[in-house]
Structures are given as C-alpha cells and as structure tokens.
Amino acid sequence: MGLKPNLVSCDYQTHMKNAVAIERPKRWDHPLDPTMLLRDLDWLIESEPFASMDAACFPNTAPLIDILKNDARISRYEHGDVVIREGEYGGSAFIVIRGKVRTLVSRLDTTASQSTQRDRPSWLKLLADSLKRRPVPEVRNVAATRSSRGGEPALSTNVRSIDDKPRVFLQDASAILNGSTSEPLGEGELFGEMAAITRSPSHYTVIADGPVVLLEIRWQGLRLLRRDPLFQKQLDHRYRAASLKTHLRETLLFRFLPPEHLEKIAEATSLVSYGDREWFSEYKSTRQLDVQDQLLQEPIIIDEGSPVNDLVLIRSGFARRSYKLGAGHHTIAYLGRGETFGLSELIHNFRHGNTESTILPYQESLRAIGFVDVLKIPRQVMVEHAIPFIRGSELPVPIPSPRYESLGPIVRSASHADLRQEVVDPAFLEFLVDERLINGREVMLINTERCTRCDDCVRACARVHEGNPRFTRTGPQFGPFQFAHACMHCADPVCMIGCPTGAIGRDADTGIISINPQTCIGCSVCSESCPYDNIVMVQIHDARGRQLVDKQTQLPILQATKCDLCHSLPTGPACQSACPHEALVRIDASNLSKLQQWMDRS
Q: CATH for 20-115+156-227?
C-alpha cells in the first residue's frame, strides 16, 4: 500500500511532461466584432438607449463599455437585405442606428429567401474520417479560429457581400415590401429581442428598406443590458408595440379577427410571468421530492374553481394542466407556446348567457413548469372582440359534465369527463412532466425490451465523435422505455442562458444546438445548468495526443461536449441508424401522439 502514492506521483509527472500548456480561453476572447474602434464605442455610449443607462446596474466584471465592445457590432445593410428571417432561431437583437427596416406582418413567401442546404462532407470524406485513427479522443486544433456566434443563418441562393460579410437579399424586395403588410422601424428602435431572449424562432421577417446601419447585440450582452430598469421597460414596451399583435395574429383563434378587434384585444392584454427564469438551478433538488410535493413547488397561474376572468395564452415555457383527485392532482396535459387555457369555460358561459345559474368556474388548474410567460385576455374583451369571429372548427369540445358547477360554494359534480381525450397513459404524462422531458425536441428513447446491449449505437456515436460517444445508455425510465442521457435539443435550451461566449448556439434552419469548440472556455456553466445531465466536460488534446493544460495553473483544460445529432451525416443520428433491432429512436417528446405510436409499435 505504501508504494501506491509514489506510483501515482510518478505517473502524474510523466503525464505532465507530455502536456502542452496554453492560455486558458476567457469570457471575451472572441468579441462579436474584433475590429470595433474606440471612437465607435465612444459614439455608442453617448447615444440612446445607452446614454440613459445607469452604470451602477452593471457588475464590475461586465461594465457597459465592455458589453458593447465585446457583445455588439455595427453592421451595414443594403435595400432588400434580410436581417431576420421568419422561423430562424434568434441569437441577436438589433437597434436601428441609421435608416429604416420593415417588419413583414404577412408571411413571406419562402421561395423568395429559401436557404440552401448546408455543405455536408462527401461520402468519401466520411469514410476517410471513420478510418482515421487518433491517438486520443477529443482532439482540438488550438490554433484555429471561428466566429463566436453560434447558429448563423444558412445563406440563400441570393447572396452579396458587404464589408466582406455575406448578406441574404431579395431580388424583388420593393415588390415584396409593397405587396405585403409591413411595419416600419426607424432610428433608435429595437427588434429581434424576444426571439433572442427566449431562444425561440422569430415570428416575423425583417428587411432593410434602403441603406441601413444596425447595431447587433448578441443575446449574452442583451441579457446583461436587461439589468438596467429603463432598458427592460423598453423591451416590454417594444413587445407590446410591435410583437404582441403579431403573436396574437398567429394564434389560430384570432387569425380571422378584423384588425380593429385585434387592436382592442392587444390593448387589453396583460403580460404576466410565473416561476423563476433560473428554474433549472433548483430543479435537480426538487426532482427528488415526491410527485405531489413537486407540484406544490409550481406557481399557480389559474386555480380550479375560481371565476373565469381571463383567457390564458402561453407566450413561452410550459404549464401543467391538472385537476384535484383525492389528496393529489391528476395531470391531463401540458401546454406550450401558443396554446390556450380557459377557452372551454369562456365558450360555455357565452353560450349559456353568463347567467348566475349557468356560469361555470375554471374546471382545472394551470401551473407554471419552470418559468412561464403568459398573456391574459379579459373575459369581457374575449366576448366582445374574439368569440364572435372564432370559426366553429376551432371551438373546443363542449363541457358535458362539469367538475365544478357553481361560483358560490364550490360544488363538484358526481361524475365528470375530461375536456379532451388523453392520447397517452396519464401516468406516463405525469412522468414526462415531472422529468421535464416535455422540453425535448430530439429525445433518445430506447425500448429496453428490444435492446440487446450490443453497443452498436455507442460505437457508431464514438466513430463520428473522435472516439468519445456523446451519450450514455442510462437515464429516466418508464416501464421498458428509457430516456437516455443525450442532448434533447430542447425547446427551451437553458444551457444557453449562462454561456459567456456564445459557444452554444442553435442552428437557424435545423434547430440543432451545438457547441463551438473554438469559443468554449470550459467554464462548465452549461454543464451545471443542464437539468438533464446531458452535457459533459472532457479533457482535450492536441493533434499529437498531448493533453492541453492551463499555463498558469497547470490544470487540465476542459471543454463541454454533447450530442449534436450527427448533423454532418446525411443519414442523421448515427445511434439510430446503427441500431439493428429498431430499439432506439430520436423523437419529439412534445408530440404525444407520435410518441405513443412509436411506443405501441415497438
């Protein structure tokens, strides 16, 4: 036993002799615009909205001047250039410095700005890479440099270069702008901020209307700027002024409303948030609680049995729809962006004249899962400006047997029927919600009764990722079905929230979340933030197999790794393609019917 410490020490010394010391990457090693001039910074600081910001709102480690220097860039656009394309995942907000842009309210014909496929490696190159033997896994080219902005939009066939930067443009921009419903945005106005903050697709297209100069602020800087109360107020005002009507118009219920009625609804709508934006920091501890104790941690948005005062529209996040059953609650479904709550009761009360004897309260409860933004539209506004225009095909199923029949002392019916048919086993739905798997758009689901543990999936993943598989065949399990620890490419990727360099980005076209190894500084914020333990910190090496260590501390430099859905492969995820027993699938956990079909079929 006495020899062991000496052997370990000896091995460590030998190991350190073969290590390569490099400078550890830092927060702002990769500014958005490395060529930003000092005079540009001075000009920005003296311009609005930055001139009115309180410097005391920003930490010493991230003063306003540094945010602008590292997380912003000034860009020029020509007439017809597409600044933001509808459906792209947002990564930046923009402020108009000079000129004017147009926000297209009506949907842009996708043929006008359709992106080409990303360049994929040839089959010959893929074969050569698979045969290449590396001395160690996770090799990095430390000299390489790439743009720090993740998820750059793919370029369309209409491309031109301005200041050596490619710009997607519309050849017939004037005709499109004149033939579409659009809203002008002038100097000092902000756009793109909601998609950037909520990590969601943009709901509109923005086109340069003549020569334009814009200040782009990537979401890392935008998150810091929100510390200033006036800027946060401006964000809220901007949403209400520009995005709220677009959001309402895209909701199926309101798509046939006359503009004047939509205006009235927008004026009366309130914006309310529930839960904690940093919900993931507490999730790992609360998930150990009993199911009913977990439910008590979820903020109440609507309590069943209370008067129906509003229609609730989910703006972002997820909410649990449930009702009391015995000493606990029974989950019926979960609601995501664009879904509504309370419509059945509103329609019932409208049809029955809203008389005291026939009026129904809310039949179910609605709770925030994590952090949820909702829009609340008052009942009377719905009755006057929305319900008369809702098509019959979009009306909910009538309530045949209410759970609650009066607004006085709450009376529960002896029998009741759910407002919509459940498409999955209620216990399985509870499992999906409690494990937050509803967030996953590409979960790895394994039928363990079909799986023979042949490890073909693991080996296939390792071949694509330099000998290091990006998932483990462990994870939450419901019956024979296992949700493996592999990145789920979430609808709300909280791993992106704290990344200081933007190394994690979502691809604008595919929605795939990937990590740029050239800008990952190994801070492990993403790994610690991921509620599902699907991001792993690994030791990295140079091309000769030598471990990379920090020059100052001599400690190993780590980087974050995770599943990237094998986006470079024409066949898609190698794990799924390699499974000889069809025991594994990558699937959207929010698509309950498709999920249930695969489980039944397998």
A: 2.60.120.10
